[in-house]
Write a structure and sequence with these properties.
By secondary structure, this protein is α+β, with helices and mostly antiparallel strands. 31% of the residues lie in helices and 25% in strands. The chain contains nine helices and ten strands. Strands 3-2-1-4-5 form a five-stranded mixed β-sheet. A five-stranded antiparallel β-sheet has the order 9-8-7-6-10, with helices on one face. A hairpin with a 4-residue loop joins strand 8 and strand 9. Helix 5 packs across helix 7.
Length: 280
């Protein structure tokens, strides 16, 4: 058998298997996440929890993507912007191993950078079920999810829909773990730690300025957050926060609720309809 990365994590007592659908192949070329589906399972494949959401990409979904996924503009028009949902997804994922069929695409290319833009640094252990499939079924030429379901005797579901793909990947994962029973005996059981509870942060808002342009209405804010200088903005149209810089290496999580609370107390006004400029 070929060498499998992160083999020890296959002894975890819990996994989150997830899949995404996007408007394109790269965020650098305008690709945006339009659906995330995830299932949390134990080591026997029992479903512990699930997550599914559409996201409004703030752009038209290309016809090619509609043809592949069946996801239309109508289906996402009232969905939240992804930055709304990321704190919820962060808690859902916790610190358990994340499994994707083609980890490089779903996790590394799209989700990790998106989390960072939202002020969340995710460091979950990861497992690529695509690489695992290539190791377990080396004589097979195709290792796409549909092919893998056939090899693992998993009943196919709706293809190219995030939640269904996540469920199929989860079933295949459990089958493949069963095929590696001997290889896994040398590893101890893996028990992910719980997420730390939110701590008290020192926040000092230094500047706020309203900006309107290109159809956006935003409040740009400079803030000292635990002695780290941050440039952030609040989107008044879609009610979400976003970093306007890279996340400081010393930080793993930015509490937008606390920044909003401190900013609104300093301004004496709700950010939702505030227009002006103020410097401390």
């Amino acid at each position: 058998m070929k060498k499998v990365e992160n083999l020890a994590y296959l002894k975890s007592d819990t996994f989150v298997v997830l899949d995404i659908e996007t408007t394109g192949l790269s965020p650098d070329k305008g690709g945006r996440i339009i659906e995330i589906g995830a299932v949390k399972i134990d080591h026997k494949g029992n479903v512990l929890d699930s997550y599914q959401s559409f996201f409004y990409p703030q752009m038209k979904i290309p016809k090619k993507i509609v043809g592949i996924t069946g996801i239309t503009d109508e289906m996402v028009k009232d969905a939240p912007v992804i930055f709304h949902e990321l704190p919820k997804l962060h808690k859902f994922l916790g610190n358990v191993p994340v499994v994707c069929h083609n980890l490089k695409f779903d996790w590394n290319r799209f989700l990790l950078p998106t989390f960072l833009e939202a002020g969340i640094r995710k460091s979950n252990p990861t497992i690529d079920s695509l690489k695992l499939a290539r190791a377990i079924f080396p004589d097979e030429k195709q290792h796409k999810l549909g092919n893998l379901c056939e090899y693992c005797q998993v009943e196919p579901r709706v293809a190219h829909r995030a939640y269904d793909d996540a469920c199929m990947t989860a079933d295949c994962l459990i089958y493949m773990i069963g095929q590696m029973e001997e290889e896994l005996k040398e590893f101890p059981d893996f028990h992910p730690e719980s997420l730390p509870t939110e701590e008290v942060h020192e926040i000092d808002v230094r500047k706020a300025s309203y900006w309107k342009g290109y159809g956006y209405h935003r409040v740009y804010i400079n803030v000292n957050y635990d002695h780290c200088f941050l440039k952030v903005y609040y989107d008044q149209d879609f009610d979400y926060w976003r970093l306007n810089q890279e996340l400081d290496d010393k930080m793993d999580f930015v509490s937008w609720k606390l920044i909003q609370k401190e900013t609104e107390e300093w301004l004496g006004h709700s950010l939702k309809d505030w227009k002006g400029a103020k410097t401390k």
